[in-house]
Every structure is written in C-alpha cells, then in structure tokens.
C-alpha cells in the first residue's frame, strides 16, 4: 500500500499543478478582458456625467479607473504570460526587470489608498451633520489624490535602484540586490500596504457607514448623488474584501512558514495554489464596473452614456420650434 501511494503521488501532484495552472490562466483572461472592458465603460460614464468634478468620492473612483487599467495591462498581462506560457520578460530584459513590479506597485498602492479614502469619504458623507458632510469636498480630494500619487512614486524609488537582473548559479533571476530592502518590500509593502491595512480600514468604515445609513433620518437628508456614490463605494469595498482576503491569508502563511523546511512535494503543491491566489488578487482592479452596475441609477446612466456616444443622442436637449417643425415636416 505504501509503495502504491509513493508511486501515485507524483502523478497526483502533476495533475494538481496542471489543474491550478489551467484555472489560473482562464481566470487571468477573464479578469483581464472583463476588467479592461469594464474600466473603459467606467471612463465613458464618468466623462459623460462629469460628477468627478463636483463629488469627492466620484473623483476617487474616476482616478482609480485609470490606475486599474494600468495594473491589468502591465501586471496581469505579464503574469498570464509567465504562469500560462512560461514567458517571463523580467528574465530577458534588465530595464523591464527594474520597472515592471515597481510600476505595478505604484499603481496598486495608489489604488488601495484611494479605496481607503473612498471608504472614509462615504462615512463622512453619511453624517447627519451638514458641517461634517461639507468636509468632503472636491478641492481636498484633489490634493489627496495628488499627494497619494507623489508619495507612492517616491516610496518606490529604492525599488528601481535595488531591483536587478542577476545570474545565480547560471540561472537569470530578477531579484532585489539589497536584502534589507527586499524584506521591507515583502513584509511591509506587500503584506501591509496592499492587503492588511486596506482590509482593516475599509472594514471599519464600511461597518460604521452601513450602521449609520440604517438610520432613516440620515438617509432622507442625503442627495441622490451622495446616496449613489455611497452605495457604489460600499459595493466596491465588499469586492476588495472578497478578492483580497485569500491573498492576505496566503502572504501571512508564507511569512509564518519562511523558516520551515519543506520537502519537494509540499513545495510542488503550495506553488500552484499561491500562483492561483496571486492571479485571483487582481479581482479588485477588474470588478469595479460590475459592482457599480448593481446600482440601478448607474445602469441607467450607463445606457444613456452609450447612446450618446454611439447614436449621438443628447439627453435634455431643447430644440427650437422652427427645428421641430422642419423635423416633423
């Protein structure tokens, strides 16, 4: 019995690896195609309605749309090539090795910061106090967006310096040449900035906002646009929790088992699972449009925006009497 198990184990592991590799590839294409298409539609709606010029939460959503497209096109596309087709450009080009993850990290860190600001803004907008709600304004939001982008660009400068393409034992590897910075980037940037901290912040403010929104008096004092943006923000926050939770668990597990001696079979099982979770973690960058579509008002705005774009139909357009008569004739 023992010899049969030892004989069948490698085959079972190979089948598991193939299953996760295929699933990761399919999931990657779904997130890439659906995410890029959804974010383009988001841009069309925001550009047509121009709510981002007057509403802080809408501005965060609008800026995040461009960041999400960058992450999908640069981060997810190259990940699909690496995991599905074994084509890793970071091992072929030194410039790409230095810039790929750094550029992706800047966009993802900005995205999660804006999601946290979005959650905080939704909580402020749900306040029954007019004075508190006035603290959510487009001017402050603009400064926060610019500050967020500048801060994370400066934060990633060491990565572009220390990351390099080196030859280890005859094998090219794209790694950080500074051990201390590599540990900082793994344990703080990856584990805290884009996983643990956003989950904690948005969970707290989502709970507080939902509890406050259950008060009928508060809901009646809010404008329809504020209600819509709060609803859309809460839906997106829920998506972040769903997609980012497994990634946080995977990173914590890797941290706990760093010094554990693993045999070849355990590593062979953990590697495809971790790869699948890493692909799954791109979900927040692909799901915003579909979360927004759960809002009835957003769906109507989407239809109107597409009609204006394709058919040239202008809503709320008043025609002179002479033009109406000519059209009727």
How would you describe this protein?
With 329 residues, this protein is mostly helical. It contains 14 helices and 2 strands. It has helices at 2-49, 56-85, 94-125, 130-133, 138-155, 157-162, 179-213, 216-221, 224-256, 264-280, 283-286, 288-292, 296-310, 321-328; strands spanning 163-168, 171-176. A two-stranded antiparallel ribbon has the order 1-2. Helix 1 (2-49) packs across helix 13, helix 3 packs antiparallel against helix 5 (138-155) and helix 3 (94-125) crosses helix 9. The chain is globular, with a radius of gyration of 24 Å. This is G-protein coupled receptors family 1 profile domain-containing protein. Residues 38-246 form the G-protein coupled receptors family 1 profile domain. It is found in: Membrane. The chain crosses the membrane at residues 20-47, 59-82, 136-154, 187-208, 229-253, 273-292.
CATH architecture: Up-down Bundle
Order of helices and strands: HHHHHHEEHHHHHHHH
Provide the structure class. mainly alpha
Question: How many structural units, i.e. domains?
Answer: 1
Largest sheet: 2 strands, antiparallel
Helical residues, percent: over 70%
User: What is the percentage of strand-forming residues?
Assistant: under 5%
Q: What is the residue-averaged pLDDT?
A: 85
CATH class: Mainly Alpha
The number of helices is: 14
Instruction: Identify low-pLDDT runs.
Output: 1-7, 315-329
- Overall morphology: globular
The CATH homologous superfamily is called Rhodopsin 7-helix transmembrane proteins
Number of strands: 2
- Rg measurement, Å: 24 Å
**In order across it, which strands form the biggest sheet?**
1-2
CATH fold category name? Rhopdopsin 7-helix transmembrane proteins
Q: In angstroms, what separates the terminal alpha carbons?
A: 90 Å
């Amino acid at each position: 019995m023992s010899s049969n198990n030892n004989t069948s184990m490698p085959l079972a592991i190979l089948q598991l690896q193939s299953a996760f590799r295929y699933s990761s590839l399919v999931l990657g294409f779904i997130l890439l195609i659906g995410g890029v298409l959804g974010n383009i539609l988001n841009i069309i709606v925001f550009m047509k309605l121009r709510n981002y010029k007057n509403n802080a939460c809408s501005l965060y959503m609008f800026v995040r749309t461009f960041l999400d497209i960058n992450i999908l096109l640069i981060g997810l596309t190259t990940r699909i090539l690496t995991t599905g087709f074994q084509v890793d450009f970071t091992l072929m080009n030194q410039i790409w090795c230095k810039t790929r993850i750094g550029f992706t990290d800047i966009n993802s860190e900005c995205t999660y910061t804006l999601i946290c600001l979005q959650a905080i803004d939704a909580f402020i907008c749900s306040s029954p106090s007019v004075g508190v709600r006035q603290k959510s304004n487009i001017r402050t939001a603009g400064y926060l967006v610019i500050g967020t982008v500048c801060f994370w660009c400066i934060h990633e400068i060491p990565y572009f310096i220390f990351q390099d393409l080196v030859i280890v034992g005859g094998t090219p590897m794209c790694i950080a040449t500074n051990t201390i910075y590599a540990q900082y980037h793994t344990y703080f940037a990856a584990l805290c900035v884009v996983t643990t901290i956003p989950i904690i912040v948005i969970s707290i403010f989502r709970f507080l906002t939902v509890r406050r929104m259950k008060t009928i008096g508060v809901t009646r004092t809010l404008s329809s646009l504020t209600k819509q943006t709060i609803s859309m923000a809460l839906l997106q926050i829920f998506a972040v929790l769903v997609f980012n939770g497994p990634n946080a668990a995977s990173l914590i597990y890797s941290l706990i088992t760093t010094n554990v001696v693993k045999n070849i079979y355990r590593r062979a099982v953990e590697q495809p699972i971790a790869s699948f979770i890493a692909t799954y973690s791109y979900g927040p960058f692909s799901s915003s449009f579909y979360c927004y579509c759960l809002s009835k008002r957003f769906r109507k705005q989407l239809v109107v925006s597409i009609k204006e774009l394709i058919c040239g139909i202008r809503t709320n357009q008043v025609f002179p009497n002479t033009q109406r008569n000519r059209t009727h004739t």
